[in-house]
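tmp note - Mitochondrial small ribosomal subunit Rsm22-domain-containing protein
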Amino acid sequence: MPTTYGVTYNVLNELARRMPTFSPASVLDFGTGPGTGIWAAASIWNDEEGKRALERCMGVDVSESMLRLAEELLTERPASLANTELVFRRYLSYNVNNPPYDLTVAAFTLGDMSSDAVRQSTLEALWKQTSDVLVLIDRGTPEGFRLISEARSWLLDGSMAAESPCHVVAPRIQRPTFMIRAKQAKNNYEDTKYSYLIVRKGKRPTALVQPSTSTVERGYLQRMTIPKSQGKLPYRDARKSLWGDLFPHPPKKPARTRVASMVEATEAIGDEH
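out:
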């Protein structure tokens, strides 16, 4: 679906912005559907001439029909995937003799799992098959935020280095004509809320370098006020920025933390069950 692709592309593009030297040679797309994560990764890290190409990609999805669709869509590969080894499977399996993947993506899969135990075992399997970066994406709801937050806590408790999660609003996703007609929509765009987590293996840095002010310790969100009096450039950047963007200018006034309402909403959901 265009929305899922748009969200996945935006998160991976944010990863590329924050880690400009990261260029994965292999990708594992868990819950691939029609190959969404593979297409998004190829759009960001593969060039048209194949000089910087993904060497191997694996798509995992329990749905056989989705896997058939993914294979059909990739029958006529674009130049960016011309030399990529592509494999699709129904189930995630782990073999110590197989090399891990530089980038693992799991988009909108945590909420579809039957229990917390299944989620934790799946996260453990995904982490074992990741050599560098793991990306988790879920819905921008209190429940989706809770799942991402719990995944982050579990990874950190396992002494694993992690980036802070962000709760963002995606750029407007362009709807194709058939979706406009199917949904009887008036506009050719839609706004999609989502939560995501980027985790990287390795030692934690001893000091922050160029820290982001869009998220703070423990992944809390902050709301900053940038007045005109702070300067032309900071004011302009504040007006042009989107949720989840990196913001390089520290505010004059203390920033307000906005995590309480989300935590309360999540706890309320837990009380209902």
